[in-house]
Amino acid sequence: MKIAVLPGDGIGPEVTREALKVLDALALPQLTLFEGDVGGIAYKRHGHPLPAETLEMARAADAVLFGAVGDPECDTLPREYRPEQAILGLRSELGLFANLRPAAGFPGLEDLSPLKPELARGIDLLVVRELNGDVYFGDKGERDSAGGREGWDDMSYNEAEVRRIAHSAFRAAQKRRKKLTSVDKANVLETSRIWRETVIELAGEYPDVELDHMYVDNAAMQLVRSPGQFDVIVTGNLFGDILSDQASACVGSIGLLASASLGERTTEFGTFGLYEPIHGSAPDIAGQGKANPVAAILSLAMLLRHSLGRDADANRIERAVAASLSSEIRGADLGGSASTQEIGDAILRHLQ
Amino acid sequence: MKIAVLPGDGIGPEVTREALKVLDALALPQLTLFEGDVGGIAYKRHGHPLPAETLEMARAADAVLFGAVGDPECDTLPREYRPEQAILGLRSELGLFANLRPAAGFPGLEDLSPLKPELARGIDLLVVRELNGDVYFGDKGERDSAGGREGWDDMSYNEAEVRRIAHSAFRAAQKRRKKLTSVDKANVLETSRIWRETVIELAGEYPDVELDHMYVDNAAMQLVRSPGQFDVIVTGNLFGDILSDQASACVGSIGLLASASLGERTTEFGTFGLYEPIHGSAPDIAGQGKANPVAAILSLAMLLRHSLGRDADANRIERAVAASLSSEIRGADLGGSASTQEIGDAILRHLQ
Ligand SMILES: CC(C)[C@H](C(=O)O)[C@@H](O)C(=O)O
Ligand SMILES: CC(C)[C@H](C(=O)O)[C@@H](O)C(=O)O
């Protein structure tokens, strides 16, 4: 079993370190770790945010454990050298088309949510975001127009792309409460019309899943008004970017939420994927031991489950996290004073 | 002064009726009203959701008072005949490029918000959404691809389009708390890069306004986490569709929120515009006297202020609405039992 570890920028390295302590404690047989540079640090060391050797390392692995990218010192670079390009490059080069973002409150931590407690308690949803298409990866550029310089981006989805992500979403719904909401803007966009027609076609193969459709503006409204109505949401790259962040904000505890980006390639043990906390590089608190490593540790749990087929270990980690969250050890983001390392240590203790 | 009244579908006619009662009570001199069909009702009567005579009537007026469009019986029609096309057609034909959507809690009604009261109390923002460009009005269609049928939409903004809406937003900010947040996705989209560069260029002309920039995913997060940080938000058509609905949901009282869509043309008294409640046609409660007419009445107030230059009358209406909201007369949406007409009558009493 090979894991490529890409800690990246800002708080990425410090939270990844705690995840690696947890991994170490599991003492998995025949595990090899490789570590590579990605993001701003990679640009500074190798002149590119996603160096060829990092990409090769990721390709050769069964899974990628990713920290975070983003560095204010790189903000003025041309777009292709900026840290965020590394994550877009990994997604497209590795064919990571399915982004899974669970958003659920942690028992006892509902008060972290900006929503009223009765609404917060009901949140238990999964956003399945398409990650290889849409306006993200279409042709784009600048052209002249009667109104001066014009920026343009081609948005599109074809049936094969929609089918692939819709299958992932239907299957995810089958393992949950069997409700799937497909989000689009089919009253305006042709891209969405194909999206909706294709999802509807596929629904026949999943008679046990209840499917409905929602326009993205209404979905943004409903996520605030009554988030408890959602089980699995499937949507395109752009709408998924917005709605998954909104859903996380509704839960409230950004430092606690993990994500998986899965590809088509299967490994010996599961599906190839990249795993990352949803919080970013948080440069303002980097290197101060203030970051919460829970999201990184839960990303590791997702890695073990989806890419290495080690469900039992994943469950063990999740239970240890839950136990430590309900104990007294809390980081600054949860109103406590525990450091990154102390939180990691507490989770380690609960693991044993 | 000429007002084109387009009540439309569902609850549109019944809430518009209450707004007209209020207008009548103001006894404005030299006012002429014209009434036209729009939406599903127009399709049924004239074969088109936006008949030529309705468009002419709107063009000849100083302002349009709009109810709502949307009719489930029209859901299976080809897209160009669906009721929503009427509103898109009016926006483009009348050059209504600036959509103003104020979102603020009503004193005493903070408990309507799904957010915690301390967050809800802080909401007082204005979304300025561009309404004539973006992926809404670009070329679009279906093409063949290796992955089967492909839907595509061209997203774009040029400098002239951005400048026009940015000026509106800067000016709106000058009249409020002088803070402007421009929302885009400049880390991914060329459309957004031109958007951001153009907004930055213009900022020099408004040294009294504090400008910042936010990616749309972060904006969706911040609108839930701490909506009180926003004063004016300016953004494109697609992001504005999502964020303005999200902002309204944060306030909670959809039946109370109004909107203005302004064009470039000035009238003798102000700016030509179309005014509508943000709630839709709500076919499930249509014709039952359950709809809240407050949003329609507040839309009328916006009409008087922006298109007819009658600030004093607009303020009078807004005060009457506030007074009636804090009295005992409440509709079903606010936990009361007053009918559409009773709420309208109560506001009328407070007006006198
Ligand atoms: C950094 C950015 C390009 C990226 C995206 O938009 O996909 C991020 O917001 C995310 O959601 O992972
Ligand atoms: C009906 C629809 C086309 C419209 C839009 O997307 O603009 C609506 O959602 C709105 O915001 O007025």
TrEMBL record, chains A, B:
Its cofactor is Mg(2+); Mn(2+). Keywords: Amino-acid biosynthesis, Branched-chain amino acid biosynthesis, Cytoplasm, Leucine biosynthesis, Magnesium, Manganese, Metal-binding, NAD, Oxidoreductase. GO terms for biological process: L-leucine biosynthetic process. The keyword Nucleus does not apply. Pathway: Amino-acid biosynthesis; L-leucine biosynthesis; L-leucine from 3-methyl-2-oxobutanoate: step 3/4. It holds the Pfam family Iso_dh. One of its GO terms (cellular component) is cytosol. Binds 1 Mg(2+) or Mn(2+) ion per subunit. It catalyses: (2R,3S)-3-isopropylmalate + NAD(+) = 4-methyl-2-oxopentanoate + CO2 + NADH. Mg(2+) binds at D217, D241, D245. It is found in: Cytoplasm. The record marks Y136, K185 as: Important for catalysis. NAD(+) binds at G280, S281, A282, P283, D284, I285, A286, G287, Q288, G289, K290, A291, N292. Residues 2-347 form the Isopropylmalate dehydrogenase-like domain. Its EC number is 1.1.1.85. One of its GO terms (molecular function) is 3-isopropylmalate dehydrogenase activity. Substrate binds at R91, R101, R129, D217. Belongs to the isocitrate and isopropylmalate dehydrogenases family. LeuB type 1 subfamily. HAMAP family: LeuB_type1 (MF_01033). Catalyzes the oxidation of 3-carboxy-2-hydroxy-4-methylpentanoate (3-isopropylmalate) to 3-carboxy-4-methyl-2-oxopentanoate. The product decarboxylates to 4-methyl-2 oxopentanoate. Homodimer. This is 3-isopropylmalate dehydrogenase. It comes from Qipengyuania aquimaris.
